[in-house]
Design a protein that fits this description.
alpha+beta; Enolase-like, domain 1; single chain; 14 strands; Uridine Diphospho-n-acetylenolpyruvylglucosamine Reductase, domain 2; binds flavin-adenine dinucleotide; globular; 25% strand; four-stranded antiparallel sheet
Length: 288
């Protein structure tokens, strides 16, 4: 039963409140609202709001862009100009895929990751980009890749802790990325989503690849075999069709809008498109 709401002024205050075990962080509140309505916050007594805790920054150091946990989708689209570079287009497209402006204006990028909901878009792009979360608690800080931080449906690696910031690695020239979402309508959640990141050499051979599917498993699903099969190749469509057959051995989560078989076929088509787009963007880096 919720009986308190605290706007903390710094991280220490937040961590102290979380220590009790019956407090939870509130970001934009857009998922919390849904969880509350469904009776999933029965044990929570205190909402901890980080708005005044000094975590609304977008900074950079030599290796990373650092996005404070209070940064909203709209703010990141407006001020994160780096997102329009070929390397980060997947994250740009994933955030743009969240259509309601009212949601984008309050929802935080950290809240999206901490929700651990398989049909949310940004966590899929962040996983493919190798983004990390900085986790803070009363015992200090630790860092974890987004792909490992989300452990399942509504499940993430937090133990009376909070996410302080996201670290987005700085990626070199010759890297391109792409995110594609396919839903029943533009406003709907994705039936399947895909995010690909490839790095290519000047001769057009793929040197590294990341391929993640969203709403396919309980957490962003890495298609490791396809990633490996892309190495040292140029992505000809027929070759891609062949390697995507590896998805035949997977079992995506079905929904009332699409059976497992349908999602598998959809994932193949979207992944081919996404790899080709990411590849084109990566090559643009060498041409400019
Ligand atoms: C109408 C509507 C349409 C939507 N459409 C889409 C869509 O198309 N694509 C999509 O991806 N999403 C969509 N969403 C979901 C939206 O993106 C998420 O609700 C939002 O990202 C959650 O962020 P938040 O800041 O509001 O999180 P909150 O609701 O505040 O929190 C969500 C969860 O994360 C935890 N949390 C938040 N911040 C932290 C932190 N710093 N540290 C630790 N835990 C934290 C909370 O305790 C809670 O468990 C939609 C939502 C609505 C209401």
């Amino acid at each position: 039963m919720i009986n308190d709401y605290v706007k903390v002024r710094n991280l220490e205050e937040a961590c102290d409140l979380l220590k009790s075990g019956n407090a939870t962080i509130i970001g934009g509140g857009t998922t919390i609202f849904e969880l509350y309505e469904r009776g999933l916050l029965q044990d929570v007594e205190v909402f901890v709001d980080l708005e005044k805790a000094g975590l609304d920054y977008i900074l950079e150091d030599e290796a990373h862009y650092r996005i404070g946990s209070c940064v909203t989708f709209s703010r990141l689209l407006e001020e994160g100009t780096f997102l329009r570079n070929p390397q980060y287009m997947s994250l740009w497209e994933a955030i743009k895929a969240v259509k309601p402006m009212q949601v984008k204006n309050v929802a935080t990028i950290s809240g999206s990751v901490c929700s651990a909901i398989p049909f949310y878009d940004p966590p899929v792009a962040l996983s493919s980009l190798g983004a990390k979360v900085v986790i803070a608690g009363s015992n200090g800080e630790r860092v974890k890749e987004v792909k490992d931080f989300i452990t399942g449906f509504l499940s993430r690696d937090l133990n009376r802790e909070l996410v302080k910031e996201l670290l987005l690695p700085k990626l070199p020239k010759g890297v391109g990325s792409s995110f594609i979402k396919f839903g029943r309508t533009r406003f709907d959640y994705g039936l399947v989503t895909v995010s690909c990141v490839v790095s290519v050499d000047e001769d057009g051979f793929i040197k590294s690849a990341k391929v993640f599917l969203g709403n396919y498993d309980q957490k962003p699903f890495e298609v490791v075999e396809v990633e490996r099969a892309l190495l040292d190749r140029r992505p000809e469509p027929n070759y891609l069709k062949g390697i995507l057959r590896r998805l035949d051995e997977t079992t995506p989560i079905p929904s009332i809008h699409g059976s497992s078989e349908y999602k598998k076929e959809l994932a193949k088509t979207l992944t081919i498109r996404s790899i080709l787009t990411a590849y084109e963007r990566a090559m643009m880096g060498w041409r400019s």
